[in-house]
């Protein structure tokens, strides 16, 4: 493993910064203190900044010292926390009830800041490195908002790279794959309108409950019979709400859930078929329905050339035997918006199995979005080293 000495020597300070961020989590588009910490650190290190993209985003601008060059590359870290009550009780546990860095964005921020501190003293390259600290990954679409605010016009970069820690993957390992790596995230809400009646006289009404049951079952035939078997897609009905009393047939029933796909084409098919199934099922039972379908995050699709480049840099840092093939997940990631607009690659860095957690951690597993999670600080020097080597290699191509 080829870690940069200056980053390794500064790991205690980077760890302290990460734990400070963990203790003060902020939710999407409200990362005011977090943005201040980032901006103050970059400014202290002599790195110019731009604030306000995506409401609370920060962009650091690192110019090389080998002369002028129009070439530029972007490195991204997400900065927001989750609306989760932390179960950990160690000293750096969240001080804000109902808010927690349960996904490691505090660690992602610390890794990029550690790279930034190295860049502040070592800029032996021609071109520009843009350090993108993005808000609101957790449901807010902060990447989309930064694009709307003109990030790629203000900071014209050739490509952008992003990373996420990955529990279960060994510390010292990376994983990446070509093409789709994270799925699209979409939500639906269906309101079935029937006609209420006494439960003893159901013939006088139109019961929406059996309509909902039929509909939920029929949705799965879209997965098993409408899409190609080799395509990946998931329809999950996660909520059914209806009724107020045991002796009353309700007059409406609401179904909610999510749809995940790796392609927009399959998503189009699923949405169309769900709409047809919902309306025709209701018609068969003499009910009506209101169908809402919201597309949140598109699939995260890596670009081939940039993925090959990232894989090579990882191999140079940790050895090819420690660069694994990432198995695509049906989870979602709003780095997808960046990859729709620019070439790039999204990859993961191993967070281990949780043995790094100090006394006072919760009893749950060290998994993402778990109240017992904590980022592994041993990743900071490795992640920062990779960011530096990736930027240097890109600009040297």
TrEMBL record:
Pfam families, A to Z: M20_dimer, Peptidase_M20
GO biological process: diaminopimelate biosynthetic process
Domain of life: Bacteria
Cofactor note: The Mn(2+) ion enhances activity.
Gene3D superfamilies for this protein: 3.30.70.360, Zn peptidases
GO MF: metal ion binding; N-acetyldiaminopimelate deacetylase activity
Residues annotated to bind Mn(2+): 103, 105, 138, 164, 369
Keywords: Hydrolase, Manganese, Metal-binding
Cofactor(s) the protein requires to work: Mn(2+)
InterPro entries with a match to the protein in the record: Amidohydrolase, Bact_exopeptidase_dim_dom, Peptidase_M20, Peptidase_M20_dimer
Protein name: Amidohydrolase
Natural source organism: Piscinibacter gummiphilus
């Amino acid at each position: 493993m080829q870690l940069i000495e200056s980053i390794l020597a500064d790991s205690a300070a980077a760890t302290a910064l990460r734990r400070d961020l963990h203790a003060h989590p902020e939710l999407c588009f409200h990362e005011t203190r977090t943005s201040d910490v980032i901006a103050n650190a970059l400014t202290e290190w002599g790195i110019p900044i731009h604030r306000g993209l995506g409401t609370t985003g920060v962009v650091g601008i690192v110019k090389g010292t080998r002369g002028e060059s129009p070439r530029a590359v972007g490195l991204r870290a997400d900065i927001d926390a989750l609306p989760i009550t932390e179960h950990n009780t160690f000293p750096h546990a969240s001080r804000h009830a109902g808010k927690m860095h349960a996904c490691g964005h505090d660690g992602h921020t610390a890794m990029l800041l550690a790279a930034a501190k190295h860049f502040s003293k070592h800029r032996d390259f021609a071109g520009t490195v843009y350090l993108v600290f993005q808000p609101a990954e957790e449901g807010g679409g902060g990447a989309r908002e930064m694009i709307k605010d003109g990030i790629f016009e203000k900071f014209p970069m050739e490509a952008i790279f992003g990373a996420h820690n990955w529990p279960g993957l060994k510390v010292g390992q990376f994983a990446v794959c070509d093409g789709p790596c994270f799925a699209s995230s979409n939500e639906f809400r269906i309101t079935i309108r029937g006609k209420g009646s006494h439960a003893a006289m159901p013939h006088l009404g139109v019961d929406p409950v059996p309509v909902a049951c039929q509909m939920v079952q029929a949705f799965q035939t879209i997965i098993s019979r409408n899409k190609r078997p080799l395509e990946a897609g998931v329809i999950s009905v996660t909520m059914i709400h209806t009724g107020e009393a045991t002796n009353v047939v309700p007059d409406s029933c609401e179904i909610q859930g999510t749809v995940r796909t790796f392609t927009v084409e399959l998503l189009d098919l699923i949405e169309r078929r769900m709409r047809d199934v919902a309306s025709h099922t209701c018609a068969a039972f003499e009910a009506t329905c209101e169908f809402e379908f919201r597309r949140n995050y598109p699939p995260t699709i890596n670009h081939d050339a940039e993925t090959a480049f990232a894989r090579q840099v990882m191999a140079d840092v940790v050895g090819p035997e420690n660069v694994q093939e990432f198995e695509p997940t049906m989870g979602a990631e709003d780095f997808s918006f960046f990859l729709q607009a620019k070439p790039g690659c999204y990859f993961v860095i191993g967070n281990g199995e949780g043995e790094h957690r100090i006394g006072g951690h919760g009893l749950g597993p060290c998994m993402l979005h778990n109240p017992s999670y904590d980022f592994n600080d041993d990743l900071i020097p490795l992640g920062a080293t990779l960011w530096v080597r990736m930027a240097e290699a890109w600009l040297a191509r």
